[in-house]
Amino acid sequence: MAWKRAAIAGVGASRQGKLPGETAMSLATEAFRDALDDAGIAKDEVDGLLTMPGTTSPEGPKHYLALGEHLGIDPKVTGSLSMGGATAGVLIQQAALAIDAGMANVVACVFGDAAKTGGSKFDASAGGGDSWGIWGMFGNAANSAMGARRHMALYGTTSEQLGWVAVNGRRNAARNPLAVMREPITIEDHQASRPIVEPLHLLDCCLITDGGVCVIVTSPERARDAKHPPVSIWGMGQGHTLQNMGTPDWWYLPHQQDCISRAYRMAGVGPRDIDVAQLYDNFTIAVLFWLEHAGFVPRGESGPFVEGGTRIALDGELPLNTAGGNLSESYMQGWLHVVEGVRQVRGEAGDRQVAGAERCLVTGRGMTLNTASCLVLGPDR
Amino acid sequence: MSDRILPTVTDLSRPFWEGGLAGELRFQRCTACGHLRYPIDTICPRCLDAGYAWEAVSGTGTILAFGTFRRAYRASWEDRVPYAVAIIQTTEGPRLIVDVVEADPDELHVDDPVEFVFEPVTEAGIAIPHARPVRVQGDPTT
């Protein structure tokens, strides 16, 4: 039986892209307003505020305090969390648990960042402590490039296959008015794009953008009275590896597999029950790993699965990243993946709506591939 | 002024960085449970004991995975491109990330054997470890 003890009643997004004059705070605020409007819930009803500081948020771990003051909220439950691309999922889970425990009833989960305008650098020397920059390892792409290299060596995965993930994301973004990058791309464009850290090219990498996102989590009962049909949380999972590449098979990120298995168990579903998936795509290779970790394909077979782009298209057997993802919609660190999951389950995704989409898997990961979270979303009934 | 990043040597980490001057790759071994560890830390992540002894290991391993940099993200790396940075699976167990020297990155393969070599940084009194492919005897392609 699916868990279904909390639901998403509202989703909101600010404008996305390069937005001079905006700040992490103003964009979070714009998204918060949009989400309340989407839910048809008044601000005064919000009694929980969970936030993720942006790369340009000066408040750091006190972000919830600054945002709460700005929005004028006295929450029963609050806090900020920085787990990279896993944060959206983890905060929504915390909101769901607080609601289920009766500690709060309407929790706003909020993120905003002016990473593009603020000039956030994602080419910093990777690693903590004795920085990997000592050895010339710079940029967020390096770890994913290494994973891609081993996947290619062991399973014959190709750069062109990675390219289909990028082409698919762009194709879907073209149907999404919010998306930042809507010009079609081809496999040839992907192959011709400059190397970042090989085997990854520029078009294997996510965007850097300004924007904000907000997700309103509430009880099933309250959600039924909101403006839109509730999107229920069927299952949720986390998996993390905090042991410095120390666990067996580390490079394959088995904690991501555990993360999804836990959510499937909670939701009472398996990979065959998922109609549409929003898989965290900081780099194209991430999507290939997720496809295997989620059990959509056996280990090592994700490359051929995405090749040609038909199985993962909107009318394919497993439509993926239907709004364009981090690669083409906007780099909201997975927050927009949740928004799109909700829109697909509601059936309101317009030109990019997947026919009959009921159950959606949403995944996120971050912190140099060490953290992972996921949600299984579905209808309330 | 070079923008090269050098390690911050502390009392805790000094034996690791000085080990290279003696041509040794050194890891900490927990005196309570025997776990050999890297990165350097004050306690054992397996049993939490604070006792340890530095131990020289073989300085050999294989390339678990690698990425190739064709562009320098720091000026100090401009004369190195193209170069590979690899996760090395050491023979004794710990994994660490270092650059691969004396190698054309296009000739490298996952699971290739490597050995550690050490670059003295005289002014700092330390040596930085790098990996280098092991030339297999009798193989004309290496």
In percent terms, what proportion of residues of chain B is strand? 35-45%
Radius of gyration of chain A: 19 Å
In which range does the helix fraction of chain A lie?
25-40%
CATH superfamily of chain A: Thiolase/Chalcone synthase
> What's the CATH architecture of chain A?
3-Layer(aba) Sandwich
- Give the SSE order of chain B as H and E letters: HEEEEEEEE
The main sheet of chain B orders its strands as: 6-5-4-7-8
Number of domains of chain A: 1
Number of helices of chain A: 12
Mean pLDDT of chain B: 94
Which secondary-structure class do the elements of chain B indicate? mainly beta
The tally of beta strands of chain A, per DSSP, is 11
| CATH-derived topology of chain A | Peroxisomal Thiolase, Chain A, domain 1
Report the largest inter-chain contact.
Answer: A-B, 36 and 36 residues
Quote the average pLDDT of chain A. 96
How many runs of DSSP E, i.e. beta strands of chain B?
8
Into which percentage range does the β-strand content of chain A fall? 15-25%
Task: Describe the model.
- The complex is a heterodimer of chains A (381) and B (142).
- Chain A is of the alpha/beta class and 381 residues long.
- In chain A, 33% of the residues lie in helices and 18% in strands.
- Chain A has a single domain (7-119, 207-379), classed as Peroxisomal Thiolase, Chain A, domain 1 (3-Layer(aba) Sandwich).
- Chain A has helices spanning 24-39, 63-71, 87-100, 141-155, 159-173, 187-192, 220-224, 254-267, 284-293, 302-306, 325-328, 335-346, and strands at 7-13, 48-52, 77-80, 106-114, 195-197, 200-201, 210-218, 231-240, 276-278, 360-366, 371-379.
- In chain A, the strands form two sheets. In chain A, strands 3-2-4-7-1-8-11-10-9 form a nine-stranded mixed beta sheet, with helices on both faces.
- In chain A, α5 crosses α9 (284-293).
- Chain A starts with 6 loop residues before the first strand and ends with a strand.
- Chain B has one helix at 14-19, and strands at 25-30, 36-37, 52-57, 60-69, 83-90, 95-100, 113-121, 126-133.
- Chain B has a five-stranded antiparallel beta sheet with strand order 6-5-4-7-8. A three-stranded antiparallel beta sheet of chain B has the order 2-1-3.
- In chain B, a hairpin with a 4-residue loop joins β5 and β6 (95-100).
- Chain B is globular and about 45 Å long.
- Chains A and B meet through α4 and β5 of A and β4, β5 and β6 of B.
